[in-house]
UniProtKB/TrEMBL annotation:
GO terms for molecular function: fatty acyl-CoA hydrolase activity. It comes from Alcanivorax profundi. PANTHER family: 4-HYDROXYBENZOYL-COA THIOESTERASE FAMILY MEMBER (PTHR31793), NOVEL THIOESTERASE SUPERFAMILY DOMAIN AND SAPOSIN A-TYPE DOMAIN CONTAINING PROTEIN (0610012H03RIK) (PTHR31793:SF27). This is Acyl-CoA thioesterase. InterPro entries: 4-hydroxybenzoyl-CoA_TE, HotDog_dom_sf. Keywords: Hydrolase. Belongs to the 4-hydroxybenzoyl-CoA thioesterase family. It comes from the Bacteria. Pfam families: 4HBT_2.
């Protein structure tokens, strides 16, 4: 599991005074950065990483407000042959406020096709397999 704390910025709020729903998908993408780094063994440019995003989903289970940090948790739910499902949670003031999933696909850009996740990457991803805690404190 990976954790990252973000501080909501004023411009990320909407007319209702809470963080706009479009912001959360960006936070979750930022929270996947450690996973991107796992696949960047040769100092590749981002466009050369052997990953593409196939799907994202977000459930908003509480309102997120400006003025309090948000803890993001990231883990791996499932590993397939050429894809894996990333789990996300967002916590503010001890409450789960959003959860989501992202499907990442191991991808060969030159062939424009998915390919099996290499064993070395699979072994690292397996270390992060499992459900995320349903409580803020571990």
């Amino acid at each position: 599991m990976f954790e990252l704390t973000v501080t909501p910025r004023f411009y990320e709020t909407d007319a209702f005074g809470h963080v706009n729903n479009t912001v959360v998908t960006g936070w979750f993408e930022t929270a996947r950065s450690p996973l991107f780094e796992l696949f960047n063994t040769e100092g590749n440019k981002p466009a050369e990483l052997p990953l593409i995003l196939a799907r994202i989903e977000v459930d908003f289970v509480g309102q997120i407000y400006y003025g309090s940090d948000v803890l993001l948790r990231t883990g791996i739910e499932r590993l397939g042959n050429s894809s894996f499902v990333v789990l996300h949670q967002a916590w503010q003031n001890g409450k789960l406020v959003a959860r989501g999933k992202a499907v990442q696909v191991h991808f060969e850009h030159d062939k424009q096709a998915s390919s099996p996740i290499p064993v070395a990457f699979r072994q690292v991803l397996e270390q992060h397999l499992g459900a995320l805690p349903e409580e803020k404190s571990l």
